[in-house]
């Protein structure tokens, strides 16, 4: 059986709402490439939207060079000017910088050594596994009764 592979930078996994009202799923890379055309993320759960926005802020800072102020390469005044220049650009982020950034790092959820946003040691250190429903308030988990929603651990929903 081949190893699982899911590159989050390329696979459509982030629901976005475009300025024209069209909704589509995009990978992280495409979200930054089309950021100037996107109105909002279309994530239904506020914690998921918050987590995605935090990641996108960090990615945008790295791609745009706005993270350079943290290591002293840019003064606060230079940072503010760079930010204003970027916001005035109708073309969005530099596509070369976006591709360079995403090509440099691993974005695969199932990478054997460095899975994206996961600690591979958990597979060996955690003896008892739990379903995704444990993370979402209001969903039944384990053998609990489904009072508030029809979700079960045997049929996980995002």
From TrEMBL:
It holds the Pfam family CRISPR_Cse1. It comes from the Bacteria. InterPro entries: CRISPR-assoc_prot_Cse1. This is Uncharacterized protein. It comes from Streptomyces ipomoeae 91-03.
């Amino acid at each position: 059986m081949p190893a699982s592979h899911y590159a989050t930078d390329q696979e459509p996994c982030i629901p976005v709402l475009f300025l024209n009202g069209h909704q589509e799923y995009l990978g992280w890379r495409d979200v930054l490439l089309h950021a100037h055309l996107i109105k909002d993320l279309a994530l239904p759960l506020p914690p998921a939207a918050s987590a995605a926005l935090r990641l996108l802020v960090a990615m945008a800072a790295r791609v745009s060079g706005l993270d350079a102020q943290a290591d002293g390469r840019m003064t606060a005044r230079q940072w503010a000017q760079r930010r204003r220049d970027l916001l005035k650009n109708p073309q969005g982020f530099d596509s070369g910088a976006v591709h360079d950034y995403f090509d440099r790092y691993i974005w695969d959820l199932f990478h054997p050594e460095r899975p994206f946003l996961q600690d591979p040691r958990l597979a060996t250190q955690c003896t008892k596994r739990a379903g995704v429903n444990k993370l979402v308030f209001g969903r039944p988990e384990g053998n609990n009764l489904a009072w508030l929603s029809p979700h079960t651990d045997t049929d996980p929903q995002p």
